[in-house]
Write a structure and sequence with these properties.
The protein has 311 residues and is mainly α. The protein has 13 helices and 5 strands. The chain folds into 2 domains: 208 residues, HUPs (Rossmann fold, 3-Layer(aba) Sandwich), CATH 3.40.50.620; 71 residues, no CATH class. Helix 3 packs across helix 12. The protein is globular and about 75 Å long. The structure holds adenosine monophosphate (AMP) and tryptophan.
């Protein structure tokens, strides 16, 4: 059975872009693939330094995975920091790639441009992500468009290692769904936790309404494009054609329709989420860590032996 793998950072509340860009494609494939879903907590510490917040975010995101429809009995859901082989293999890859190669990473450049501290972890981030993916012989990585280059970097790390030490790692492919590759936020730019332009996936109806009402519209075109662009990820375009036709020019009514549609879309997940306790989350993460670690430690034994790290 082929394997899918993806991860999300517990750096803030999940938004609709995370769901339709990464989680939904993961869920759609998980029936046919061996599936692994990671809480990327070591990635999150490149930017999040508050322990109370991090601890809460880890529990919340793992609960959200299950509420969104991922079955922890089938998929391996685990926390990156529970499996030390990730940081170990990340180091190995750092020793194989060059500084100029890492300097070309768009995500790094964007984060620094946004004012984030360019700490060395942020810089080496793509090699930790390569380790996440390659440790498990992953075939497919469902992600949003902003992660395309990171998966290319993972292929590069695999090729470098295989060249230097012999065939060891599979080269993974990203899976990016065109229609939802980059969901725009309330300001028309990419929806992102760090831009303050998100519609939270598990927000209350009031929070959703507030976010939708804040969508920036201009009256120059036929339809409010920023509203439509979000609407099309929660409702099919055929239905939207007639809705936008009959409410032409009535931006407030269109926003109200969008609030209804988002609310209908997320309310079953919200109910499921309320039924999952912190202790449930701790239990499935513990089980996931054991299953992931078994695979990761076997792979690392092979890596060490090939590199001459056994005597
Ligand atoms: P992050 O929140 O950066 O950990 O992202 C988690 C996953 O959600 C990654 O696969 C991203 O590519 C995806 N993602 C984040 N923002 C968006 C967006 N606005 N549209 C589509 N996918 C997104
Ligand atoms: N870098 C990804 C993001 O910010 C999160 C991530 C970490 C990831 N490790 C991964 C995604 C492995 C896919 C596979 O969205």
């Amino acid at each position: 059975m082929k394997r899918i793998f993806t991860g999300l950072q517990p750096s803030g509340a999940l938004h609709i872009g995370n769901y339709v860009g990464a989680l939904k494609p993961f869920i759609d494939l998980s029936a046919e693939y061996d599936s692994m879903l990671m809480v990327a907590d070591y990635h999150a510490i490149t930017t999040l330094k508050n322990p109370t917040e991090l601890r809460q975010n880890i529990i919340d995101i793992a609960r959200d995975y299950v509420a969104a429809g991922i079955d922890p009995q089938k998929a391996v859901i685990f926390r990156q920091s529970d499996v030390p082989e990730h940081t170990e293999l990340g180091w190995v890859f750092q020793c194989l790639v060059t500084v100029p190669f890492l300097q070309q990473a768009h995500a790094y450049k964007d984060k620094v441009a946004k004012g984030l501290e360019p700490n060395a972890g942020l810089f080496a981030y793509p090699m930790l992500m390569a380790a996440d993916i390659l440790l498990y012989d992953t075939d497919i990585v469902p992600v949003g468009a902003d992660q395309r280059q990171h998966v290319e970097y993972a292929r590069e790390a695999a090729a470098k290692f295989n060249n230097a030490y012999g065939e060891t790692f599979k080269e993974p492919q990203e899976r990016i769904i065109e229609a939802t590759a980059t969901v725009p936020g309330t300001d028309g730019k990419k929806m992102s936790k760090s831009y303050g332009n998100t519609i939270p996936l598990f927000g209350t109806r009031e929070e959703i309404a507030e976010a939708v009402m804040s969508i920036v519209t201009d009256s120059s075109g036929e339809r409010p494009e920023n509203v439509y662009a979000i609407h099309r990820v929660v409702r099919n375009e055929g239905e939207l054609q007639s809705l936008y036709e009959s409410y032409k020019g009535k931006y407030k009514s269109l926003k109200e329709a969008l609030i209804e549609d988002i609310d209908a879309f997320v309310s079953p997940m919200r109910e499921k989420r309320d039924s999952i306790s912190d202790d449930n989350v701790r239990a499935f993460l513990k089980d996931g860590a054991e299953r992931a670690r078994e695979r990761a430690s076997a792979k690392m034994r092979d890596v060490r032996a090939k590199m001459g790290l056994t005597i």
